[in-house]
Write a structure and sequence with these properties.
The chain is of the alpha/beta class. It is 39% helix and 23% strand. Strands 1, 2, 3, 4, 5, 15, 16, 17 and 18 form a nine-stranded mixed beta sheet that branches. Strands 6, 7, 8, 9, 10, 11, 12, 13 and 14 form a nine-stranded parallel beta sheet that branches. Strand 8, helix 4 (158-175) and strand 9 (180-182) form a beta-alpha-beta unit.
């Protein structure tokens, strides 16, 4: 028994195409594509009547727990370092395992309702390390989203905390199956001593995965890395052999050209987070210089990839360095395909059936030549009508099928109140 999507306009991002064809899905994969496909006797037929069939979006750098910090009232920190020390780190310290799971469910629900079917999460809960990635996976599993999870190893809580983080990230990477994969994660380079870098290298060798980490989000990373450890972050990462085609560096907004060139030469993925950069007032990352292996992430902002793509393009235009927004989105699929070792993104035979149905009534012709402009100026999460992950409908008629949004929101508010109370008492 399969599912046949009939009468929709199927979208490919790179090379761009918009074609009125049918898709047949069986199990977790697309098994046929063509005009007027004949359904089998047991097939479910979904009449799309000209709606868009769009590849499920990939959020290449997110922080699920941040959903519990939304609206947290604090005086504006005077600097990036103050932001870390007065807001971000105290918030992470206040997380417990229950809050981690609730946040994953709430953040995963928002993600899938916005059209994200795969997200890469970099997690930190220094006072609740062991089991935190498994709890995050349970939260995402409730929603049905595909997840790649890593724990942000750091020396910020001392050697014991560092070793707990290494053990957690390696343990989850070994156990992850199905819709989940694990990676080795790290905090900012200035929070990593030489022993931590060595431990990360050993973890990468053990798991065969890549490193997911923030890089030069602010000039503080370069300054404190040099002051505390004798070299800037890129030199230290290269010396420790931590950069590779499996590595993922988020932000990269404050690298000298020579350092950026060295990072690009390793094949490391660069993850652009324009809305987060704006919110933290850390400056514009030169996304046009990020090379062929660059994609988009939302970091701690709302998990809306359509909004992120629009912000990325418009900010790049403002900077006089316009990016190819379709390539940035398509690269998310390439990254996910690399990690899951399966085709994710192409609307073709053999690819995993991660897709969206968008109820978008285009006011102008929608073609391969105009697709990018519709993504930048027209399409949005408000058009997401249905979401399929691994061949299973997870959202239908704009309603999630496996969780009750009201219950999820209530649990999230309770968890947020408890986290804020712990922050206030610390």
């Amino acid at each position: 028994m399969g599912t046949v999507l009939k009468g929709g306009f199927v979208v490919e991002l790179e090379p761009a195409s918009v074609e009125r064809v049918d898709l047949r899905i069986e199990g977790e994969r697309i098994v046929a594509r063509g005009e007027d496909l004949a359904p089998g006797p047991d097939d479910e037929v979904v009449a799309l009547s000209g709606k868009l069939v769009f590849p499920g979006l990939v959020n290449a750098h997110h922080r699920l727990a941040s959903v519990l910090s939304r609206g947290l009232v604090r005086p504006p920190p005077p600097s990036y370092q103050a932001l870390l020390e007065q807001v971000r780190w105290p918030f992470e310290n206040a997380l417990d395992l229950d809050a981690v799971q609730v946040a994953a469910t709430a953040g995963g629900l928002e993600s899938i309702q916005c059209g994200t079917t795969t997200l890469f999460d970099l997690h930190a809960s220094p006072r609740a390390v062991t089991g935190s990635l498994l709890r995050a996976a349970r939260g995402l599993h409730e929603v049905g989203v595909r997840g790649v999870l890593s724990y942000a190893v750091t020396d910020r809580m001392g050697a014991v905390g560092r070793e707990e983080g290494l053990e957690e990230t390696v343990s989850f990477a070994r156990k992850a199956r199905g819709r989940f994969r694990g990676q080795v994660g790290a905090g900012p380079c200035f929070t990593l001593g030489d022993d931590a870098l060595q431990g990360l290298g050993e973890a990468l060798n053990t798991t065969g995965t890549g490193l997911h980490f923030p890089l030069a989000e602010d000039p503080l990373d370069e300054r404190l890395s040099t002051e505390r450890h004798g070299n800037g972050p890129v030199t230290r990462l290269l010396t420790s052999n931590l950069l590779s085609p499996r590595a993922m560096a988020a932000h990269a907004g404050h690298l000298a050209w020579a350092d950026l060139a060295q990072v690009l030469a390793t094949g490391t993925w660069l993850l652009h987070t324009p809305r987060s950069n704006q919110g933290l007032e850390v400056g514009y990352a030169p996304a046009l210089k990020f090379g062929a292996r660059a994609s988009l992430g939302t970091d701690g902002t709302s998990p809306d990839l359509f909004a992120e793509a629009q912000a990325a393009y418009l900010r790049s235009r403002e900077a006089g360095q316009p990016i190819d927004v379709l390539r940035y989105l398509a690269n998310g699929h390439r990254l996910a395909s690399q990690v899951f070792e399966a085709a994710i993104g192409p609307m073709r035979e053999g690819a995993l059936a991660d897709l969206l149905v968008l109820d978008y009534l285009s006011p102008t012709p929608l073609t391969a030549e105009t697709l990018a402009w519709h993504v930048v100026h027209g399409l949005g999460s408000r058009h997401v009508e249905a979401v399929m992950v691994d061949g299973v409908w997870r959202v239908w008629a704009r309603r999630p099928l496996s969780v009750n949004p009201t219950v999820v929101a209530e649990q999230s508010r309770e968890a947020a109140a408890a986290v804020w109370a712990r922050m206030a008492s610390s």
